[in-house]
Predict the structure of Protein MHF2 homolog.
Amino acid sequence: MEETTFDCDLIHSIMKRIWTLRTLERENVATNDALESEVGAGSSKKNRTTSANASALKLTCELLRVFITEAVQRAVAIAEAEGDTQIEATHLESILPQLLLDF
């Protein structure tokens, strides 16, 4: 039985959005730096688009699935230990530091 995972198209869209925003930020910084510097003409950096192949995208989706599953399981354990029946933000906050170190 195969476990469900995140929609790869959704994750790819999110990644493309982040890459686009970072590219725009870099271009804005580069433009400002070029205006402030005397050299300003030309750059050794190439403007390349960032992309991810299908295997990398599938692996990213699986990593996100495992990360979220582990976070929920750890938060459930904390909630049960405190006698709560629902996970709250405080439970996630308490498990987050160790979870990030483990991943």
Notes: The first helix runs from residue 8 to 36. The helical segments are 8-36, 54-81, 89-102.
